[in-house]
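Reviewers of the previous submission asked for a worked example of the structure-prediction workflow described in the proposal, so we include one complete record here. The input consisted solely of the amino acid sequence. No template or homolog information was supplied to the procedure at any stage.
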Amino acid sequence: MGEVGWWVGGAALGSARGTVLLAGHVDDADAGPGALHELAQLPMGAVVEVDTADRRFAYRVVARRVYDKAALPDSLFDRAGRPTLALVTCGGAFHPGQGYERNVVVYAEPVGGPRPLR
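From that input alone, the workflow returned the following structure tokens.
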């Protein structure tokens, strides 16, 4: 529940173009809060840091949108546009046996370049 997945078809962290798409659970009935549990409350302007094995990338939150599950925008899968981080988790009402009805997406822009992890 504490893990976030990267969509391998999108941009890589630090890419000069395209959307880096990371997704994680909001919660789980058995395990409790997920990795992106607080995503819907993340304030505009907040800095999100994403670590790899050897580097840290920083992004500033610029927008939050809520989409129906079946209506995620094509821009989430953009490999050619401006460099963007998109964080995706579930949102809206939960329906047993069906899951959440919506997705929460937070968009962020790069802040500076990557820093080595020490």
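Strands lie at 4-6, 19-24, 27-28, 32-33, 47-51, 55-68, 84-95, 99-110, 115-116. We consider this example representative of the routine output the project will generate in years two and three.
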